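Input.
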Amino acid sequence: MKRIILLLVLLVTVLTANAQIGTGESLTNGNFNKWSIEFAGGFNKPQKPMKYYTSPISPYVIDLGVRYMFNNKFGLKADFGYNSFQEEKNSPEFSTKYYRFDVQGVANLGRIMDFQTWTKTIGLLGHTGIGAAYFEDKNSSLDDKMINFIIGVTAQVKLSDKLVLTGDFSTITNALQSHTYDAAAVNAEKGFNGALFNGTIGLTLYLGKKENHADWIVFENEEIAALRERLDQHDKMFLDSDKDGVVDYLDLEPNTIAGLMVDSKGRAIDLNNNAIPDELERYLTKTYPGTANSDDPISDKESITKLVNGGYVAAYFDFNKSTPTDSSMDGINFVLNYLRNNPSASVDITGYADEIGNAVYNEKLANERADNVKNILLKAKIAPERITVISGGVDTSVDKDSATARKLVRRVTFKIKN
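Output.
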């Protein structure tokens, strides 16, 4: 009797525990399914009261239940069970049936014991409750109405977000049972006595439109979640998207071309205020000395346009490649910076290939080269309507037997329109 009292106390504890969750745990996120249907079948072994014997593993048991979880740790379920008892080979014949209906508290032991730290597919539920039972013998008018108590554990293997394989072991005891399970004798004890063991394998189907069920949800401690949010905000504050050494939230020019010198606000240095960063300007006068005197920086749109449209700024490609060479990025960045500083300007991009190889293939390769340069500008936030791709096809203006000459025609050229 003491054992029964302790089990009843456990039941009450489980049913009320959902109201006693620690204050540090967040249960405000209801973005999970709570309902499920459970079906299982298996074997049973009545221990007592018995006069004769069943097989060591006696068929059969059927169990059908509906479960609702308040949160990821505690819930309730209602289930219906059916047991059939039959004699073993050396026992007198009998065939009795046992029906029960129980309301049970459910504890998600997998979440309580932090299974999620080592597995995402294995779970464990504990369940206990009370209910009503009915017992009959097909060979007589025996009719027992009882109160039962049930306790058990259910192992879970997650097959999908909606389906779980289960294995359950439960113990059932009855009060007010008038006869033995084999209906062969009267039971003198009317309190909770004896034991009936059930072992089943089944499936649980989760109901609802959410992605996950409460069985597998893990709530974060509010304090830990707050700390994580603060760390995320801290990380965002120190992002430096353009790698210029000035964090984004202080950067007034967040898309500065890589490698350019910037001031404390992240703006490219432009001492002569001609809308061209000084380092690009030095690159221009050094790389294309014929376009301007080294002491006279280019300071007007017309000069820059003539320089670009004259083919002095271009992107070059290795043989049979559609990706610009590393050294060509300075030229592309020069055009990019001009477009950024002149929002009304647009650009035509023309791709070329040399004469080596199939003409149709080379035509395609020339287009790919132009498209790739266009994509670089698009990724740098230049509006697509400001960029036009033109196919230059095969350039036959140089001696195709000269490897050096062919390098000059494997290119993309630019034409700026203001």
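Residues 6 and 12 are 10 Å apart (CA to CA).
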